[in-house]
Amino acid sequence: MGIFERIASEIKLMLRRPPRQQFAAICFRRQKKSGTLEVLVITSRDTGRWVIPKGWHMKSKLPHAIAEREAFEEAGVKGKAQREPLGHYTYQKRMKGDLKVPCRVQVHALEVKDMVRDFPEAGSRVLDWVSCEEAAARVDEPELKALFLEFGKTVPQSRKKSVQAA
Q1: Contact status, residue 59 vs residue 143, Cβ threshold 8 Å
Q2: How many CA atoms lie within 13 A of 35 on its CB side?
Q3: How far is CA 132 from CA 37, 105, 121, in A?
Q4: Do residues 92 and 82 touch, judged by C-beta distance below 8 A?
Q5: Pairing of strands 100-115, 20-30
Q6: What long-range pairs does 4-7 form, CB within 8 A, spacing at least 24?
Q7: CA distances (Å), 152 to each of 79, 86, 148, in order?
Q8: What pTM does this model have?
Q9: Distance CA 120, CA 118 (A)
Q10: 3-class SS of residue 88
């Protein structure tokens, strides 16, 4: 690599913006009869890809509270998200004008207590309850795949009743 290529590379690195921060929830429940763990995946509104509820920072809201709010707005989920994150993943958010912005998503586990039919984004997304392995197979982001697989191995047994499938 010549000196000009090296300088250009260094300048590009210096001008690169840090990733934008989002907060998300892995929503989970257990089947009533078998106790089998299920997680919620939803489709994105723009591309139809399988994702989890996530959103941008909100002034004066803690990260886990943002994850709870996004789960309600995007999927009609009510529940409590854990304060401590499960982990993070990164992806390229497609913005208007086909601009791609790097995003870092902090993920919180959210045990589902209730679901409502009437929520802000009802009708604009498809929701599906699946195993952690199936969720990992559906999402595109490698780090999110790994989070689902690890979550399936480590999720604690619930002390309180969550919404359970029949």
Answers
A1: no
A2: 5
A3: 8, 18, 24
A4: no
A5: parallel
A6: none
A7: 19, 12, 6
A8: 0.83
A9: 7
A10: strand
The widest CA-to-CA distance across the chain, in whole angstroms, is 67
Distance, in Å, from the CA atom of 81 to the CA atom of 89, rounded to the nearest integer, reads 17
Measure the CA–CA gap between 8 and 112, rounded to whole angstroms. 50
Q: What angle do CA 44, 138, 94 make, to 5 degrees?
A: 35
Strand partners, 28: 39, 111
Of 53, 56, 93, 58, the C-alpha closest to 74 is 53
Q: Count Cα atoms within 13 angstroms, Cβ side, for 10.
A: 7
Which of these, 27, 55, 30, lies nearest to 41 by C-alpha position?
27
List the one residue out of 141, 134, 77, 129 whose CA is nearest residue 103: 141
Tokens of 131: 């195993």
| pLDDT tens-place values along the chain, 166 residues long | 678 787 766 666 555 667 899 999 999 999 888 889 999 999 999 889 999 999 999 999 999 999 999 999 999 999 999 999 999 999 998 878 877 889 999 999 999 999 999 999 999 999 999 999 999 999 999 999 999 999 999 875 554 455 556 5
- Secondary element (H or E) of residue 140: none
